[in-house]
Amino acid sequence: MKNGEKSALILIDIQNDFCPGGALAVPGGDEIVPLANRLMTRLPNTVLTQDWHGAGHLSFASSHEGKQPFETTELSYGPQVLWPDHCVQGTHGAEFHRDLDTDRAQLIVRKGFRREIDSYSAFYENDRKTSTGLAGYLKSRGIDTLYLAGLATDFCVAYSALDARREGFAVYLIEDGCRAIDMEGSLARMREEMRQAGVRFIDSTDI
């Protein structure tokens, strides 16, 4: 591991709607905020991602008659889990957790703003083609090693980690800096997929 200028911390979706009391709360989601702030002081480069949906987004169950949250539907790019309305642009739920030290971030990547495509990953939307531009930004700065933390381990963090490997980055997932939804075994499934892709699992004390 290295935590010099060629490394970056990517903090995924630490937003009100993913914390207790939010529309799509991840159990213990707010517990990672103090650690996220400490990690930003240990690593020289920080990027935040922010789920940023418009009202009526097609990943919302409310946009599909007769569908309930956590059911699945088919969109143009394949199967899509339908979620409660969450992280709607300009709402309290879309804001970062109030205790997160956002001033330390050098870049905020907003994702999921296209109505027809959901976006779990910090790098690509769910069609696996539409880029957020993050990989190019990191490479242009000479960054080759990424440390990931945030919400949720088995969705947005995992997809970001897999895409980071796909883009050639060394990737470390900080396990105590994440919390999971764990829907129908999703955590174990995504952990194995990340492991096979070469993502390494560490504790924050390893940095």
Map the helices and strands:
Elements: E1 7-12, H1 33-42, E2 46-51, E3 72-75, E4 78-81, E5 107-111, H2 134-140, E6 145-151, H3 153-166, E7 170-179, H4 186-197, E8 200-202
Parallel strand pairs: 1-2, 1-6, 2-5, 6-7, 7-8
Antiparallel strand pairs: 3-4
Helix pairs in contact: 3-4
So how many helices?
4
The helix/strand order is EHEEEEHEHEHE
Strand content: 15-25%
Count of beta strands: 8
How far do the termini sit from each other?
A: 8 Å
> What's the Cα radius of gyration?
16 Å
Low-confidence parts lasting 5 or more residues at pLDDT below 50? none
Decide which structural class fits the backbone.
alpha/beta
Query: What's the mean pLDDT score?
Result: 96
Order the strands across the largest sheet as they lie in space. 5-2-1-6-7-8
| Percent of residues in helices | 10-25%
| Tertiary shape | globular
Q: Mind summarizing the main beta sheet? A: 6 strands, parallel
Features:
4 helices; globular; two-stranded antiparallel sheet; 207 residues; 6-stranded parallel beta sheet; alpha/beta
Overview of this structure, please?
Helix 3 packs parallel to helix 4 (186-197). The chain has 4 helices and 8 strands. The protein has helices at residues 33-42, 134-140, 153-166, 186-197; strands at residues 7-12, 46-51, 72-75, 78-81, 107-111, 145-151, 170-179, 200-202. The longest helix is centred in the last third of the chain and has 14 residues, at 153-166. The chain is globular. The protein is α/β, with parallel strands linked by helices and 207 residues long. It has a 6-stranded parallel beta sheet, sandwiched between helices. Strands 3-4 form a two-stranded antiparallel sheet. It is 21% helix and 22% strand.
